[in-house]
Write a structure and sequence with these properties.
Layout: E1 3-8, H1 16-34, H2 39-46, H3 50-56, H4 59-69, H5 76-97, H6 99-120, H7 132-145, E2 150-157, E3 160-167, H8 168-186, H9 199-216
Antiparallel strand pairs: 1-2, 2-3
């Protein structure tokens, strides 16, 4: 699995929405850590649970859980991994879509990604949290908008690690193939969330991001000024 470090793609505008999203995710995690013994009840209340979504019929309450769950994380590693990808790829997608368009795009991708997880794990009672679905949408859009952008990447080669510049098409394409392979295997598991990864949220978010990125993100930005 390759690990992106930064992209080499310029932008016109400061990514204010992307920075705010990262800040909100970090603030939410800090709040989670402050809860102590109250953390588990908090997660069970605010996380998205597929079985509850289909059993209660209270779509409004579950809709609030979808939104809240997109800003919660289960561990420091979970948070840092998601924020790394959002920091690297989100700014250029925001630059192409505009601030308001990017905010709507991010939340919409996260919403549909969560539903993709729900419909492939309808009976799961395991709480689902994390920004991965929304960020997967960002990755899908980036792939469509900037397929030839160079990404500085850590490439494991056995016992050695090499840093190389790879096209976004390779980095994000490989990421998606891994998600698709793992998600397909997970369909035979009784509760895929038991593995700790909502693969179909990743897959669903990525596909939605590609579609929306292809529709709304094809225009070329003006002359560049900010270095990504």
């Amino acid at each position: 699995m390759v690990i992106p470090l930064r992209d080499i793609q310029t932008r016109q505008k400061f990514p204010v929405v992307n920075v705010v999203l990262i800040a909100v995710n970090i603030a939410a995690f800090v709040y989670e850590m402050s809860l102590g013994e109250r953390l588990n009840p908090f997660i069970n209340t605010h996380a998205f649970i597929p079985a509850v979504y289909f059993e209660t019929g209270n779509r409004f309450a579950d809709g609030r859980a979808i939104l809240a769950s997109m800003f919660l994380h289960g561990s420091m590693g979970h948070l840092l991994g998601n924020m790394l990808y959002l920091w690297i790829f989100g700014d250029n997608v925001e630059d192409r879509l505009g601030h308001f368009g990017y905010a709507v795009f991010y939340l919409f991708c996260g919403w549909l990604a969560t539903l993709a997880h729900a419909f492939t794990n309808a009976g799961s009672q395991v709480p689902s949290i994390g920004a991965s679905g929304a960020i997967s949408g960002v990755l899908g859009a980036y792939l469509v908008m900037f397929p030839r952008a160079r990404v500085l990447t850590l490439v494991p080669l056995g016992f050695f690690i090499r840093i190389a510049e790879l096209p976004a098409l390779v980095v994000l394409g490989l990421w998606f193939v891994i998600q698709l392979f793992s998600g397909t295997l997970s369909l035979g598991v009784a509760d895929t969330q038991a593995t700790g990864v909502a693969w179909w949220a990743h897959i669903g978010g990525f596909v939605v991001g590609m579609v929306l990125g292809g529709i709304f993100g094809r225009r070329r930005p003006p002359q560049r000024s900010w270095e990504a």
